[in-house]
Amino acid sequence: MYKSHTKDPVAKYIVNNSLRLNDVQKSLINETMKLSYAVMLGSADSLQLLANMCKMIRAKKTLDIGMFTGYSALTIAQVLPPDGRVVTCDVSNQHEALAREHWRRAGVESRIDFRVGPAVNSLRRLLSDNAGEAGSYDFAFIDADKEGYADYYELCLRLVRPGGFIAFDNVLWGGAVLNEADQSSSTTALRQICQKLHADERVDVSILNSGDGVALAFVK
């Protein structure tokens, strides 16, 4: 019922004793798992943690970079107030119908603003003088092309307020980041973003061994 990147029995125990999914979340996971590239689905346990953190800071406006089938947008939108907003971005609208079906069933479609196109362009538009969105978001979730993480980070850092946070998914990449022989562009980009966060005095940082690894940058 959930995607896990590990067969570790301890991780399974944690998930089995903490993960809470409603019927709409279960349905969207099941539909996504039928796709040949279902591995792109974010870990339900990691997203539950991020949703709980959003509740803790009383988040109202959030960013979702990499919509895919809409599970992350759904999970976060459900914990926002009725006038809350998730701006979700994806280069493709291939799965928009599936996403909207489940957003509608959960009663959160009105909270989700889907932007089609390169996420860099969508984020820059939010930062334009006309939009005036700088520093107005509480949280950003980045789970898109790994080579773009550094650019997404810099843009989200301008959009997320001090006291908010930015989360990066897949930073452990199935352990590939530990294999120095792996110099692929995605693996290299993930190593670099973790190194960048570690050295960046604009944020406080934690990396969690949850799902496929989640890095958290808390904006100062």
From TrEMBL:
Superkingdom, natural source: Eukaryota
In terms of CDD domains, this protein maps to:
AdoMet_MTases
Signal peptide range in chain numbering: none
Q: Which Pfam families match?
A: Methyltransf_3 (PF01596)
One Gene Ontology MF term: O-methyltransferase activity
Biological process (GO) annotations? methylation
Q: Which UniProt keywords apply?
A: Methyltransferase, S-adenosyl-L-methionine, Transferase
The similarity annotation says:
Belongs to the class I-like SAM-binding methyltransferase superfamily. Cation-dependent O-methyltransferase family.
What's the protein called, per UniProt? Caffeoyl-CoA O-methyltransferase
